[in-house]
Every structure is written in C-alpha cells, then in structure tokens.
Input
Amino acid sequence: MRHEAVPGRPYAAAVVAEGRFVFVSGQIPVRDGRLIAGTMREQTRAVMDNIVAILDSAGATLGDVVRCGVFLGDLTAISEFNEEYASRFGSRLPARTTVGADLPGYLVEIDCIALLPAGTRR
Output
C-alpha cells in the first residue's frame, strides 16, 4: 500500500512492509489540504485524525500502533499535547520519542509504526 497524499511531491502517507508493518509518514495538522490553526490540543487532534484515517485504509487502528515519533514546535505545551495524545490511545500507549523541533507554521507532527493484526496481510 502506498498512499500519495500530496500530488507532485515525493511523499507516501504510508507504506506496508513485509505484509504486516505499516509505516505512517509524519502527519501534520492538515484537513482538506489546509493547515489547521489553533492550540496544541486542536492541532494534535487533527494530526491524530489523519493517522487514524491512514491506519484505517491499511486495515489497522490506533490499538495496533507500536511506536510513535513526535515533533513539537513548542515544548512548553507538552502537557496539552500529552492529554490529547493519551485520550486517543487510552491505556495502550505505544513506545514514543518526543523532541522539540523548528516546525514551519504548525505545532505538532507525528509519525508511527503499526503492526497489522494477525491474519491481516497486505
């Protein structure tokens, strides 16, 4: 599975490798091609919505995510980020790395790796 998210750019929203590993590229707070302005919580919600949609198209859910890479443009808002992030994953949190980054016009970017459920191969 390769999902071209931005026509004309060398970018795939996700790739399934070895039939079971879904590698989701860094997602930013974009909806319908437009950047979502707002708080860290609002932008995190939009990013998570994008990840959910991509995982769904591959046959996975947030419950299948085993690792996330998180890039925050404002580390002082990490508690706001953590609240939204935890509300989406519930008690089954994946391994995570979080770093501060100089992001161009938005506050959060997240990539992840999911393992498709047993019996699901692409």
Notes: Residues 63 and 92 are 7 Å apart (CA to CA).
